[in-house]
Description:
140 residues
Amino acid sequence: MRSNRAVRMQPDARRITDTRERSPIMSNTDDHRRRERAEPAGNIAVLDSINGGVLGELINISVDGLMLMTAREIATQSILQLSLQLPAPLLGSGTIELGADCLWCRKAEDQQHYWAGFQIIDASDEAVRQIETLIQQHAR
Length: 140
């Protein structure tokens, strides 16, 4: 991990116009998704490494990005240090540590939770290997 700092950026006023990008759940065949995604069978809590506490639950992951279900809205363009809490060690570690940029956040149908999509912007070689192994074990 290159940095232990998180920078909170103000969301800008740009809106996504492509309807595929507005959907919180997208299929693996969408054009802009070139990498295989994994939907873990068990619950994987995602912690905010800088501010502490549970940020949400991992819904799916690729080596390029991930999607969470969270109880709070996350500002787009927020850069966060995340710690994925694995239910069992993977390649000798019980966590995957990475930096991620929140690209979008939308209220879920239950109106009490949010879907949030992140681009992974900082991950060690070990973290990338862990993600690749997780995908191999749980890819759909």
